[in-house]
Q: What sequence folds into this?
């Protein structure tokens, strides 16, 4: 099993690259943002609970995310690998992920981070707001999401660096260029593992 975490700030291009990686390697793409947005769109009890939090650009509670991920792992026990996109986002989630994976004798295999500077991020997020009409892509909310990233998610870099799992790839360039760099880093890692 290859358990890949695709890491990076909002707007770094995780979603785009995660889909391509999952397709190339035959792994399951899990986007917690997509899962939550679909709950909101369907108006489920969970969706109703998280709607306002998401629209404000804040983080949904660790408890809910852990519940969601537990059910993802139970439902996909037969896959060859995961591309986790948007999870973990806090230290608590990272520790719980280790616990969840260890239940089936698994570990995080690699954390690949997309490095993009803040100025570029805000520009991209504002463009996406125009294209996709996501309610959490207004300037005010974008600022909140970047603050959440700095306060809660960035500390994960050290958590994974200490475990020697962290690799960084420059996230500016064409989608294909970045994808090729990510793919070769994964392939390199796979050959070391074997
Ligand atoms: P982004 O483009 O900011 O990376 P995502 O699509 O990954 O956005 O997530 C959108 C929103 O969903 C987040 O701003 C947050 O409210 C919620 N969310 C997604 N994943 C998590 C998580 N692991 N922990 C807490 N909240 C999350």
A:
């Amino acid at each position: 099993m290859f358990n890949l975490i695709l890491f990076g700030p909002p707007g770094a291009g995780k979603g785009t690259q995660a889909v391509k990686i999952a397709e190339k390697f035959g792994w399951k793409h899990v986007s917690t943002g997509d899962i939550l947005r679909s709950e909101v769109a369907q108006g489920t009890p969970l969706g109703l609970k998280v709607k306002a939090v998401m629209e404000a650009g804040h983080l949904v509670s660790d408890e809910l995310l852990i519940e969601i991920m537990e059910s993802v792992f139970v439902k996909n026990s037969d896959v060859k690998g995961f591309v986790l996109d948007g999870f973990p986002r806090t230290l608590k989630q990272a520790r719980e992920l280790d616990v969840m994976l260890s239940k089936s004798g698994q570990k995080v295999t690699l954390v690949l981070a997309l490095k993009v500077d803040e100025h570029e991020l805000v520009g991209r997020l504002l463009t996406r707001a125009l294209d996709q009409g996501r309610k959490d892509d207004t300037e005010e909310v974008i600022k909140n999401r970047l603050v959440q990233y700095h306060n809660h998610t960035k500390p994960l870099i050290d958590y994974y660096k200490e475990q020697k799992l962290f690799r960084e790839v420059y996230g500016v360039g064409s989608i294909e260029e970045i994808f090729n760099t990510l793919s070769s880093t994964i392939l390199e890692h796979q050959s070391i593992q074997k």
Notes: Residues 2-193 form a domain with the Rossmann fold fold (CATH 3.40.50.300). The radius of gyration is 16 Å. DSSP finds nine helices and five strands in the chain.
